[in-house]
């Protein structure tokens, strides 16, 4: 019998700074909240927004380490992975469900900017690094965005809604 998984691809902006969880000192996993807001042009050519969907994204092993280093609150990203739910009952007996993507890949959405990939050698693991702010680089004229202006949900406009604490996820500081 084949196991079926709902593999999806979603774009959006990182709503919370990625947070490591687990007992492994090399960051066995990390998670962040992703805000995805569909936009479209109406009949008059005006941009319209639908309500924002918030999804928890979890990454594990090397992907988690790379996300912790390269992804920051407000970044436009593309995430692909297995869609699922996490369910638990809180201390008052209230049942909770949250939608989660177990990420297979996470990358910056190049519709909104450019990025540089730094590869790691296979034999050696990267040393845990603290994210450093990137210095803006001039964008070559060939890369200037010819697309029409779209509403920008920058980091200052994103506020991730609070999630209730999951008692079955004790090593997870984001609850």
Task: Supply database-style keywords.
1 helix, DNA-binding, five-stranded mixed beta barrel, OB fold (Dihydrolipoamide Acetyltransferase, E2P), two-stranded antiparallel ribbon
Determine the number of helices (DSSP H or I, runs of at least 4 residues).
Answer: 1
What share of residues are in beta strands? 35-45%
Average pLDDT over all residues? 78
- Distance between the terminal alpha carbons, to the nearest Å? 34 Å
Q: Report the sheet with the most strands, covering strand number, pairing sense and barrel closure.
A: 5 strands, mixed, barrel
SSE series: EEEEEEHEE
Main β-sheet, spatial strand arrangement: 1-3-6-8-7
Kindly identify the CATH topology: OB fold (Dihydrolipoamide Acetyltransferase, E2P)
For the record, the CATH class is Mainly Beta
Task: Output the structural class.
Answer: mainly beta
The number of domains: 1
CATH architecture: Beta Barrel
As a whole number of angstroms, the C-alpha radius of gyration is 18 Å
Low-confidence stretches: 142-148
The CATH homologous superfamily is named: Nucleic acid-binding proteins
Helix coverage percent: under 10%
Q: Outline, from the CA principal axes?
A: globular
Q: Could you characterize the architecture of this molecule?
A:
This is Single-stranded DNA-binding protein. The chain is mostly beta strands and 175 residues long. The protein has one domain: Nucleic acid-binding proteins (OB fold (Dihydrolipoamide Acetyltransferase, E2P)), CATH 2.40.50. 6% of the residues lie in helices and 35% in strands. The strands form 2 sheets. The chain has a 5-stranded mixed barrel. Strands 4-5 form a two-stranded antiparallel ribbon. β7 and β8 form a beta hairpin. About 4% of the residues have low confidence.
